[in-house]
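Researcher: Here's a chain I'd like modeled. Treat it as a single chain, no partners, no ligands.
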Amino acid sequence: MGITSFDNIYQGKSILLTGNTGFKGSWLALWLKRLGAEVSGLSLEPISNPSHWNLLALDMVDRRIDIRNFNDVREFLHRVEPEIVFHLAAQPLVRDSYLNPLETWSTNVMGTANLLEACREQSSVNSIIIITTDKCYENQESSIGYKETDRLGGHDPYSASKASTELLVSSYRKAFFDSPDSPLIATVRAGNVIGGGDWSKDRLIPDMIRAVNDNESLKIRSPNSTRPWQHVLESLSGYLLLGQKLFQGNKDFAQAWNFGPNDDGNRTVEEVLLSLKDEWPKLSWEVSQSKQPHEASLLHLDSSKAHELLEWEPVWSVEEGIKQTAAWYKAFFEKNEVLSTAQLDEYIKKAQSAGLKWSRS
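Model: Modeled as a single isolated chain. Structure tokens:
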């Protein structure tokens, strides 16, 4: 059964989704399919087993293409003729970027350049949403949330590559997509997303799931590091709302946007673990004593622009997001059930009861 929201803008539209086999991409693919979109996925093989993508078993076009191969990307766009593009394909892990910096740079920067160049040659494309990260800012360890106009930067290769991606998109917007009939392009920066179906390494909740299942104590790196935590559906609702506005032709929305949690979502790693322990009492952890590569200890986002201009608001508190995440993994491991569709419907109903405009049917 489909759902109707976002002014029904996605119904029947041809959507290209890169990175669809990833954690966030698979959730977005599910939502787009529920909205009645004709979705085509361009991605590598899932990096984990099990994988959320494989568990969903969505009926859609799905091709294994490396975003760094321009000819393959161009050919695929020509074949599927997308109207809206969501670009999530990336090397998404900070610690992996220290181990494989060239892969990180080539995937995140040149991969995005390949996609934009292919879009430039594809007349069907109307709107492009490029997903970067909250880590694209020059982090000054400030308690004040970063705004979209703050300076870009990055210490680690992942963060720096995403800051570079922001500059790349700005260049393409000004140099190649400035005519009246050009696609509208926006970039989006979300916080630390959580949710069921994430088995990535070196992420807090997947690492916790593995530790609990193996009856081991979780080794954590930085218990006092603060991040903007949010359920994956929060960021995706912002992406979809922005995609709606771009497709409707409002050039004022073709810019950078933060989609982060409210202030209650800014939690330390240890605070998140304490909330998770309410759901998994046998969870225990210890601080790793091994030398770790640099990671920022404090990061906040200011999403006031999205609140004011897009009328976007989070639906679930961070506590509710943690509970939903715990419920997903418990259902999977204890009952072999995948709650993604049910949780998406629950999220939309909560948005409707809160009166959020995007959720109206």
